Amino acid sequence: MVIRALDLVRQCYSQDDGQKVFDVLLPRLQRGERIELSFEGVPTVPSSFINTALIHLLDMLPFETIKSNLRFVDTTRQINEMIRSRFDFEVNRRHLQPVRQHERM
Amino acid sequence: MIFSSLLPTSVTVPLPYSFNAKSIHVLLEGTLDEHLNPTADKVVLDFSKLNFADPTAITVLSNVVEYLKHKHGVKVYFRNYRYPTEGNKFLDDSGFFLRYVGENAFKGAKLRATTLPLEMVSYDRSFPWIHNTFAEWIALRVGLSTESFASINVCLQEIFNNISDHSGEKIGCVFTQHYPQKGEVMLTISDFGVGIPFNVRKVEPKISDAQALERAVVEGFTTKSTKKNQGAGLNILTKYVVANNRGKVFLQSLKGSFNCIHAASGVRMSSRTERVTYPGTLIQITFRTGSLDPIGRKEEFEW
Q1: Which of A100, B46, B149, B272 is 20 to 30 A off residue B284, Cα-Cα?
Q2: Domain limits at A66?
Q3: How many CB atoms lie within 10 A of CB A34?
Q4: What average pLDDT does range B142-162 have in this prediction?
Q5: Do A46 and B298 touch (CB under 8 A)?
Q6: Are residues B2 and B107 in the same domain?
């Protein structure tokens, strides 16, 4: 299913904004649903939003589950870089499988 | 009240001839002691020698006036601000005297096209300020789309999130100046919150203010001021402004300052201990309008 971020929050900016998105994503991902999170109409996203909405999922779900069931659409290069770099750093920090391990091999 | 009664009734602080990041100490030494208490009940700022002021000077001046008035109830007066120096004219054109005295100092004072005037931006208003006020102004100045400034916009989002999440305050004082000849924009934001080193010392108690600023810009370093804080905000400034844009970042908070520049060898960071304490945090970013990374463009996501 497609979830449009701006249907949940006015802007993708603060930790509070991120929490609202997280609260919608988590139960669906825990049920094994496949989700496309749309950033249609979102100009930029800071780390606070990504940390709360997405990185916090790593406390609840294996990274592989997140990676296989969560996709991002209607994104910009800035949004993509922020998502990838935050996951890359946090997955490495948590001693889990690196995000782009296959690229390094 | 006992401390208050021991304060001198009045102190006059002459502003420096050239007022920029290097001469902030003149204002701070005159108005505040090392514990950030005011030096007097009444502070008179003397503008007679102010021949030059840059964006940082205006932001710092405003931040200190707000700090004295609202944190300590100090009465702040301006003297000789009608002296026709270039510094006073720049302050006047920037709306500084209009804000604090209630009227312009000079006849014909007018906002310069290269200036986005001094503004107190509350966190609630920061998102539209970044994406409408700032981005539309600079896009029009440079002749690019607002999307071209995505990397700078996200840095501003990081700064305002830091103010809101960590400083104990909800307002940032902002001033922006475009230098078309140099192809640069200098933007300064300040708050008079608890300061970055104060928060860093919650997890590393023995660290100096200068060392605390170095730690704060390392990706992943977090003071856990909020439950889900992961420590990435200041690091993004050094990445987008310095590494990608080859601009500059300068921070001053309490007694520490931090410089990040792009040199031939790559990104260079340095910190130092200042002789005076800054009330809160000052962030100055200088970015080049000719080498903006087009990260606002649409792109398909891949893990």
Answers
A1: B46
A2: 2-104
A3: 11
A4: 92
A5: no
A6: yes
Q: Are residues B242 and B95 in the same domain?
A: no
Number of domains, chain B: 2
> What part of A 38-67 touches B (C-beta under 8 Å)?
43-48, 51-52, 55-56, 67
Asked if residues B53 and B81 have their Cβ atoms less than 8 Å apart, the reply is no
Instruction: Say if A29 is an interface residue toward chain B (CB within 8 Å).
Output: no
Domain count, chain A: 1
Residue B297 is predicted with a pLDDT of 84
Express each pLDDT in B216-269 by its tens digit.
998 877 766 555 555 567 899 999 999 999 999 999 999 999 999 999 989 999
DSSP 8-state code for residue B241 = I
Determine the residue among A20, A37, A44 to mutate to test chain B binding: the one whose Cβ has the most chain B Cβ atoms within 10 Å.
A44
Residue at which a domain ends, from B57, B80, B112 = B112
Of B147, B151, B233, the CB nearest to A47: B233
% chain B with pLDDT above 90: 78
C-alpha to C-alpha distance for B149 and B146, rounded to whole angstroms: 6
Residue in chain A nearest B156 by alpha carbon: A46
Lowest mean pLDDT among A91-105, B96-110, B150-164: A91-105
| Pair (B105, B169) in one structural domain | no
CATH number reported for the structural domain that contains residue B173 in this entry: 3.30.565.10
Domain residues for the domain of B86 are 1-112
CB contact at 8 A, B249 and B283: yes
Q: What is the pLDDT of residue B221?
A: 74
Q: Report the DSSP pairing between strands B248-263 and B266-288.
A: antiparallel
Q: What is the ipTM of this complex?
A: 0.87
What is the per-residue pLDDT for B161? Answer: 94
Residue B102 burial (C-beta neighbours within 10 Å; 0-12, 13-18, 19+): exposed
Out of B161, B228, B299, whose CB is closest to A77?
Answer: B299
The pLDDT value given to residue B223: 64
- Report the length, in residues, of chain B: 303
